[in-house]
Amino acid sequence: MDVLTKIKLVEAKLKAILDKNGVVMPEVAIVLGSGLSDVADNVIDPLVISYDELADFPVATAPGHKGRFVVGNLGDTPVIIMQGRIHYYEGYPMTDVVLPVRVLARLGVKNFVLTNAVGGLADGMREGDLMLITDHISTFVPSPLIGPNIDELGLRFTDMTHVYDVGLQNVFREAADKLDIRLLEGVYAQFTGPQFETPTEIQLLKGLGIDVVGMSTVVEAIALRHMDIRVSGVSCITNLAAGISDELLCGSDVVDVGTEVGPTVTALISEAVRNF
Ligand code: HPA
Fold it and tell me: Rounded to the nearest whole angstrom, what is the distance from the C-alpha of residue 117 to the centroid of ligand 1?
């Protein structure tokens, strides 16, 4: 099945479920990274739609990724939350990895908050810190836009000068200021994973100006910018990257630290999305 046909099938299925429940697609979507799934528990009167209710929707297999949409109000703001995302390392084609965000954008979402768990490289970073993504490096993963251009979604060549919307970045800075949350800023680089990096790789990446490394987000941001959708990103530094500290890296620690920081992430995002 070609990519657009698949997108349209999932789109029709999700729209039918929303319509049946009398729910209008919110203009704000939040994609929750590893360990951050509790953010969705703060949605009032949620409509929960499991990904497996949607024909041809990839199944989320990563630890800490529940694989469902949660629709409702976060504070005063209507949002749709992806409680779990699809990663390239799960073995899906990149077009499946970005299918969920493309479907949401086609159904009316105008602003995305992409969250993720990352390893921190930059000097001064601490486990549990949050970082506003100001730019990314996509060079280490295949582009989700490879293949025939889908003209219905966007242009063949997409500008990447301001992937992370400058206005939304300011909204996050103001929210962090108001709530007295330490919010670092920097550049995110996506790697395929699922293995963590080696200390030598991390030293190399540091030299390239990368502040945090993770296994998601960038390809979603690219697919969304192709569709001219506004994107923002917040990283949770669940660990210092390999070799930066003496500790060995482990997936369950990533989820545990994400869970600990969850309430702060919820507060930050709830405050920010009010002002989108
Ligand atoms: N590397 C890559 N991805 C990650 C890391 C890391 O150290 N921590 C959480 N996700």
Answer: 7
Task: Please tell me whether residue 230 adopts helix, strand or coil conformation.
Answer: strand
Name the residue of 65, 114, 249 to mutate for ligand 1: max ligand atoms within 8 A of Cβ: 249
Nearest CA to ligand 1 atom 3: 214
Identify whether the C-beta of residue 45 lies closer than 8 Å to the C-beta of residue 29.
Answer: no
**CA–CA gap between residue 231 and residue 221 (Å, rounded):** 7
Q: Could you read off the pLDDT tens digit of each residue along the chain, which spans 276 residues? A: 899 999 999 999 999 999 999 999 999 999 999 888 888 988 998 999 999 999 888 888 877 778 999 999 998 899 999 999 999 999 999 999 999 999 999 999 999 999 999 999 999 999 999 999 999 999 999 999 999 999 999 999 999 999 999 999 999 999 999 999 999 999 999 999 999 999 999 999 999 999 999 999 999 999 999 999 999 999 999 999 999 988 888 888 878 878 889 999 999 999 999 999
The alpha carbon of 6 and the centre of ligand 1 are apart by a number of angstroms equal to 30
Alpha helices, H only, 180-233: 199-207, 218-226
Q: Is the CB of 130 within 6 Å of ligand 1?
A: no
